[in-house]
Amino acid sequence: MPRAETTTDVASDAVAAIIADVRSRGYNALSELAARFDRVEQHRPLVPRAALKEALQQLDPQVRAALEESIRRARLFADAQRPRNTDLQIGPGANVAQKWIPVRRVGLYVPGGLAVYPSSVIMNVVPAQAAGVSSLALASPPQPAFGGLPHPTILAAAELLGIEEVYAMGGAQAIAAFAYGVPAAGDNPELEPVDVVTGPGNVYVATAKRLVKGVVGIDAEAGPTEIAILADAGADARLVAADLISQAEHDPNAASVLVTDSAELEQRVREELDRQVAATRHRERVATALSGPQSGTILVDNLEQGIEVCNAYGAEHLEIQTANAEEAAARITSAGAVFVGSYSPVSLGDYCSGSNHVLPTAGTAAFSSGLNVTTFMRAIQVINYDRAALAEVSGHVVALSRAEDLPAHGDAVSVRFSS
Ligand code: NAD
């Protein structure tokens, strides 16, 4: 099945040009790109503090309560993830340690093209705060319907979390601005470059993150959403179809994949999809995603083979709806996140499970992880040997330095013991 990776290749040239434009023309480029891609004429990149406060005041109390509960659960889990420092005495007087340090400044991207994602504010901000990052900047596309500011629910979520630096910037241009910074111009203050850029987004955002990687750190490639569902004959076709649709709703490029050993279930899911797609609000987008080459059913001989297929595919979200769901889940070695059994739908993880919804797509789960506290941290190793401890290994250092034909390395040890 083709993956989003092929689409990032297609977007590369366009995105490289946008990044170069932002680097050379700063705020002027940002305003022109906002007009071109977001249809915003009066562009004011830095959102005024008053607009953040106002958005929270105006927020629907039910949405506020939901955001607060989502934050509470995400915080509990993020706090529990903080890695422990290691301090080990290798031998007498020979100490090595590893300490985890948060990065200083991060740029957090919250998508806002086809849908509005206040939940992504939480998913980005909470682990960064739990890591101890001191400087957080957030960007989301400017919306013509809201005077060129990001959607008010996004602003309200930022205010709830105490984020003061919010930019109305979308797509590849936002990622470029975070990575390279933007010099002050006119009324716009300097946007200071960040150390790490995170967050989900469409193919332009994912491609831009790929292109700035190395200049800054990034989280996993979190491009167009994917759901795979491993289901057997006993699965409820109504629930399977609802979950496939729920992720297809994100993006016409979203992938919804059913992996099953039951041709009969496949038939029932197909009938349910016909019925439910016709009734869903974003039916066009959903139908496009479901009929795309990236979506479909993989019929396997048995669940054993189904697990192999799921591990080879490495879906961003993998649901297990089989008789022994926990057993099957324990054997999954590649996925952004695994949702076990009928009462753990992906939508729960999207909003309120405590887990993070910024997850690796396009098969990158084979080597990367979903957003978590360590995304915002680095580990520094600290070496502290005393004279006797160094003397004990000095012969080995000299031998290895000769073997590598780097004798000055050995000399730097020997000199400490010669008078
Ligand atoms: P977005 O904010 O990612 O993209 C909107 C921006 O795209 C615009 O501001 C514009 O600058 C840029 N853009 C649009 N057309 C362009 C073009 N032709 N050339 C260059 N730039 C262009 O919002 P979206 O489009 O709604 O996408 C959100 C994405 O995030 C979806 O694909 C969704 O599946 C994904 N998502 C992923 C996760 C995850 O964890 N993997 C979580 C939430 C959302």
TrEMBL record:
Binding annotation for substrate: T225, Q247, H250, H317, D350, E404, H409
Entry binding sites for NAD(+): Y109, Q173, N202
A single BP term in Gene Ontology: L-histidine biosynthetic process
Enzyme Commission identifier(s): 1.1.1.23
Provide one Gene Ontology cellular component.
Answer: cytosol
Ligand binding (Zn(2+)):
Q247, H250, D350, H409
Cofactor(s) required, per the database record: Zn(2+)
Q: Which InterPro entries match?
A: Ald_DH/histidinol_DH, Histidinol_DH_CS, Histidinol_DH_monofunct, Hstdl_DH
Q: Give one Pfam family.
A: Histidinol_dh
Q: In which pathway does it act?
A: Amino-acid biosynthesis; L-histidine biosynthesis; L-histidine from 5-phospho-alpha-D-ribose 1-diphosphate: step 9/9
What are this entry's molecular-function GO terms?
A: histidinol dehydrogenase activity; NAD binding; zinc ion binding
Per UniProt, the keywords (alphabetical) are: Amino-acid biosynthesis, Histidine biosynthesis, Metal-binding, NAD, Oxidoreductase, Zinc
* Co-factor note (free text): Binds 1 zinc ion per subunit.
Q: Which residues form the active site?
A: E316 (proton acceptor), H317 (proton acceptor)
| Catalysed reaction equations from the record | L-histidinol + 2 NAD(+) + H2O = L-histidine + 2 NADH + 3 H(+)
Task: Check the record and name the PANTHER family matching this protein.
Answer: HISTIDINE BIOSYNTHESIS TRIFUNCTIONAL PROTEIN (PTHR21256:SF2), HISTIDINOL DEHYDROGENASE HDH (PTHR21256)
Role played: Catalyzes the sequential NAD-dependent oxidations of L-histidinol to L-histidinaldehyde and then to L-histidine.
Q: Belongs to which family? A: Belongs to the histidinol dehydrogenase family.
This chain belongs to the protein called Histidinol dehydrogenase
Native species of this protein? Arthrobacter sunyaminii
